[in-house]
Amino acid sequence: MTSLSQKATTLLELHKPGTPVILPTVWDAWSANLAASAGFSGLTIGSHPISDSIGKSDNEGLTFDEVLTRVKQITAAVDLPISVDIEAGYGEDPKRLIEGLIDAGAVGLNIEDTVHSEGGRLREAQEHADFVGALRAASDATDVHVVINARTDLFVKEIGDEADRVDRAIARLKLAAEAGADVLYPVGFHSDDVQKRLTSELPLPVNAIGHPANSDKSAFAALGVARVSFGPIWQAVLAERSNELLARWS
């Protein structure tokens, strides 16, 4: 088995603008094994899919301990680099977040700027960067370089005027980059022009969300994307297909 430190290095090295790594978003050992068997080189664990899988709500309806329980099940099932969506951090101290993830066998994380425990407010740009910096410092205190994917919800929550939203997202994510992020995630489905601006103006590899049935890897590559994950969409597509099958019997 590869050491966690080596897995973290491998995960980071997979992020190549123009040659995006595809990291399917899984939620349990079954889905992780399915993706691993298909030949993917790493996986993400999504908060929304995990929540649905155990009957909890997304937006921190789970506790961090519940997330770690599922992470441990997945890392025990597959020997791949794993990144975990930890939403806004579940109100936990950055040190506990990093130590908990490493102990569970994960080597990466998504951290978003929506604070669900405080009415869904958006962290201020520097506030979010400071949280990223605290996560980086906590990781640096270990022998595992946890790959930090700093996410902003400006697009999905349609915060502020659309006319300058891209500018504000770029400014916000640049602060996160300066604070120690490794990857930047302006989550949302963007036009080609917007996606190209994001990949060309941001200083780090950019994560895009893809639809496993409708999106195209080559299109993301042409736009300079370095990483594609599916969020809750793979699980949703499987649910749609399952409904079609089960409807024949109901």
- What about the largest sheet? 6 strands, parallel
**DSSP strand tally:** 11
- Tell me the fraction of residues in β-strands, as a range: 5-15%
Structural class: alpha/beta
Helix content: 40-55%
Mean pLDDT comes to 97
N- and C-termini, Cα separation: 45 Å
| Assembly state of the chains shown | single chain
Q: What is the topology, as strand order, of the major beta sheet?
A: 2-3-4-5-8-9
CA radius of gyration is 17 Å
Low-pLDDT residue intervals, each spanning 5 or more residues: none
What is the number of helical segments per DSSP (H or I, 4+ residues)? 10
Shape: globular
> What is the element string, with H for helices and E for strands?
HEEHEHHEHEEEHEHEHEHEH
Pfam families: PEP_mutase
Protein name: Carboxyvinyl-carboxyphosphonate phosphorylmutase
What do these coordinates show?
This is Carboxyvinyl-carboxyphosphonate phosphorylmutase. This protein is an alpha/beta fold and 250 residues long. 45% of the residues lie in helices and 14% in strands. The chain has 10 helices and 11 strands. The protein has helices spanning 4-13, 29-37, 47-53, 64-77, 94-104, 125-140, 165-179, 192-201, 217-222, 233-247, and strands spanning 21-23, 25-26, 43-45, 82-85, 108-111, 114-115, 121-122, 147-152, 183-186, 207-209, 227-229. The strands form 3 sheets. Strands 2-3-4-5-8-9 form a 6-stranded parallel sheet. The protein has a 3-stranded parallel sheet with strand order 1-11-10, with no helix packed on it. The protein has a two-stranded antiparallel sheet with strand order 6-7. α2 packs parallel to α4 (64-77), α4 (64-77) packs parallel to α5 and α6 (125-140) packs parallel to α7. The longest helix has 16 residues, at 125-140.
